[in-house]
Design brief:
Length: about 500
């Protein structure tokens, strides 16, 4: 039986269990591919601001379709179709608050002016059903002053949880700490601004946080792929990331095709993370918002223990939104600790029996709470996100390929959209020029800090070629840090240069 929003074998639509009560085994009935879920036939109910009761029940498809009033109130969030109202086929607007406004009113909300919405809808219609990861040129008005490889480093904000996992002797509490670390980044991931796609060869370095060194590099342009490595005295972190998307008109499904491994140094324990997919709603019409319904699985490859966490889908009037529930299991798949919370607030845990019920005499204890954030921040940045953009976290003699040095990113950070757009176009043209020169000379791009292995690993959303950290960055950083030269160039004067075949100018 499914304990997420889905269908069991008897085709009954199920709501989530009470808080802190999941049927052991996790989200067994969850269908990972959002397209598969959309193919199920759900009952749809439309509402408007004058009458919240169902007026018209009919069969329809859709991930956020709602149930008839006799079924669970925790079903998927209601759709607000604007077909007919705006004259656009296939356009749907989803209100996470559950539909207190009519569809047309909600569709007029968001960051776009009416003429801009119409223009982008006409431009994007032809891409419906396509992977738009890097095939569409988008205006800088929807961007945030950060790149995708910088966002990879955001996962390290609460890296102290991995330190605690390494120090912990209890194998199940070790997984509580490590899985909570994996959940903690979702507060930052709910931002609705798009990060810049990295230029091939672009890097991002970070120091002065949690005693770690972090390096990420864009290792492929088509398909877009990044690799990252972080290390301190307690853990090493290695990731190969290749996002896959599916554009659905007014929303996009994002599939995290990647491999994430964490090694805890004290005992050599290796952890493998598989995150849930993400859906970005109301891209053009309505207020943009993010949901990540599905399973997160963190497996201890050394012992066979694992964590299965269910990210609940947003339901009517926001019911279930942000909620995460699950269990830590031993190698025999027996539940040992229940976990519950909200990914935008906090997570807690409690020992449980074999039925998943809390053990008598134990209490629910908080393990993590989101840090205070700046008020009224334009890009909804955390304090840590601002640190990622600053040179306070940059190492001595920063690589010229670092994301902080991108002129388009820097211009957007300063609020100059015109300059940001021009610089973005210039970088993209130079990247095409370098590719043309490279191919003319029969050369192949080779990443500096990561090597392509022969390993191809399966993921729920496709196979992945794996890159591994080659250790050269550690040698480079050790040489720089031990250098007798006290002179260091002003980082603001360093020109962004990720190019392997010359810093090309567009002719």
């Amino acid at each position: 039986m499914s304990i997420c929003h889905g269908l069991d074998s008897g085709s009954r639509l199920l709501g989530p269990p009470p808080r802190g009560r999941l049927a052991p085994k996790g989200c067994e009935g969850w269908v990972r591919d959002l397209e598969e879920v959309q193919n199920y036939s759900f009952l749809r109910k439309r509402t408007n601001k004058r009458n919240m009761a169902a007026k018209d029940q009919k069969q329809g498809g859709g991930f956020f379709s709602s149930l008839a009033s006799s079924l669970s109130n925790f079903s998927s969030a209601m759709h607000k179709s604007v077909n007919g109202l705006l004259g656009y086929e296939g356009l749907e607007v989803i209100n996470p608050e559950g539909g207190t406004e009519d569809a047309e009113e909600e569709a007029q909300r968001g960051r776009w002016k009416q003429e801009e919405r119409d223009s982008y809808w006409r431009m994007m219609q032809k891409y419906i059903g396509s992977d738009i990861t890097s095939m569409v040129t988008l205006p800088v008005i929807i961007f945030e002053p950060m790149t995708m490889i910088q966002k990879m480093a955001e996962l390290m904000e609460y890296s102290y949880l991995l330190d605690m996992a390494d120090k912990c002797e209890d194998p199940y509490m070790r997984l509580v700490y490590a899985s909570t670390w994996a959940i903690s980044v979702y507060f930052a991931y709910q931002r609705t601004w798009k990060p810049f796609n990295p230029i091939l060869g672009e890097t991002y370095e970070m120091v002065n946080h949690g005693g770690m060194t972090f390096i990420a590099e864009q290792v492929s342009h088509h398909p877009p792929m990044s690799a990252g490595h972080a290390e301190n005295e307690h853990f090493t972190y290695d990731v190969t990331s290749k996002l896959k998307t599916k554009f659905l008109g007014n929303s996009v499904d994002v599939y995290p095709v990647g491999r994430t491994r964490v090694t805890l140094k004290r005992d050599g324990v290796v952890l493998d993370l598989v995150p849930p997919p993400t859906k970005v709603n109301n891209l053009i019409f309505g207020r943009t918002w993010v949901d990540s319904p599905g399973e997160m699985i963190l497996s201890n490859l050394t012992t066979g223990d694992k964590v299965v966490l269910c990210f609940n889908a947003c339901g009517w009037f926001g019911a279930g939104r942000y909620e995460v529930d699950g269990y830590v299991y031993n190698a025999d798949e027996e539940p040992k600790i229940l976990m519950t919370g909200k990914w935008n607030e906090s997570m807690s845990y409690q020992p449980c029996d074999l039925e998943g019920e809390p053990l008598a005499g134990t209490d629910l204890k908080e393990v993590w709470r989101v840090a205070e954030t700046p008020a009224n921040d334009k890009f909804q940045y955390t304090y840590f996100a601002h640190k990622l953009n600053s040179f306070d976290t940059a190492p001595k003699k920063l690589l010229a390929s670092d994301s902080r040095l991108r002129p388009d990113r820097f211009a957007l950070e300063k609020g100059d959209l015109s300059k940001a757009g021009a610089e973005k176009s210039s970088l993209e043209e130079r990247q095409r020029a370098e590719k043309k020169q490279r191919e003319a000379n029969n050369h192949k791009f080779v990443p500096r800090w990561f090597d392509l292995t022969e390993e191809v690993t399966p993921t729920p959303w496709g196979d992945l070629e794996v890159y591994q950290f080659n250790g050269k960055y550690s040698e480079h950083r050790a040489a720089v840090d031990s250098s007798a030269s006290a002179e260091e160039a002003d980082v603001h004067s360093i020109e962004f240069n990720p190019w392997q075949f010359g810093n090309l100018s567009v002719e």
